[in-house]
Design brief:
The chain has 270 residues and is α+β, with helices and mostly antiparallel strands. Helix content is 25%, strand content 24%. It folds into two domains: 146 residues, Fructose-1,6-Bisphosphatase, Chain A, domain 1; 108 residues, D-Maltodextrin-Binding Protein, domain 2. Strands 3-4-5-6-7-8-9 form a seven-stranded mixed β-sheet, sandwiched between helices. Strands 11-10-12-14-13 form a five-stranded mixed β-sheet. A two-stranded antiparallel ribbon has the order 1-2. The longest helix has 22 residues. 45% of the residues are buried.
Amino acid sequence: MKDFWESVLHFAKTTANKVGSELLADFGQVQPKEKPDGTLVTQSDKWADEELRNAIASNFPTHGILTEESDQILPDVEWCWVVDPLDGTTNFSRGIPIWGISLGLLYRGTPVFGYVYIPPLNQSFHGFWFGKTGLTGPEGAFVNNRPLQTSPDQPTMNHFFSFCSRSIQVIRHPFPCKIRMLGVASYNFLTVAAGLTLGGVEATPKIWDIAGVYPIVQAAGGVWVPLESASIFPLKPGLDYSDRSFPTLVVARNELVPIFGPFLQELHKG
């Protein structure tokens, strides 16, 4: 499958980087509208969604597509792309330079490849992680083609942990690290993969927020902890994922789960 994986990586890189570069022209210049779920959307989100869907359909016509802005029911196919055309719309519309394009490739409902491009920072993350799928191929997680590895450090007040705006209220003090809020679910978890933070939590991420970063985090040595009783993956064909949230904790390694986990008990649903 070497040729297949090379084509997947080349497609993700050229497509996401092209769309992201063109979005830079609208960065901080567009007015958002509020969707029924309270999140924001702009014409830039919708344009990027259409561009990415058309590119996938043209290059991988047998693959399914699941996106934030249009196709939200998982098709019954072996391979499916999960697309967040603009993760961090609030940051994008307000001129804050952390936002990106996220692509995840599912195999039988489980993410095995992810690519995230952060245009304002000129950072491109990608990773392959096959888990128990039976697939073989390239391994590892990378940023701008340099290998990623999570941090081996112990928590101190000179280390970082990221919260989202919906989880920050559950913090009990004293917390063992400095706290940050980045405003972008994918980048929150990518900072763990890159060794910049020891952990991060998202209270209400949707599948397009996490599918692209899931393989990158795993390949970098991070630990993905669903804050519900049920596993996230594999996803189930025919289900509408538009209103499904997946509370998640990501940490740099297993030993940190009992350190950070107790602070997040109120986010557990099951």
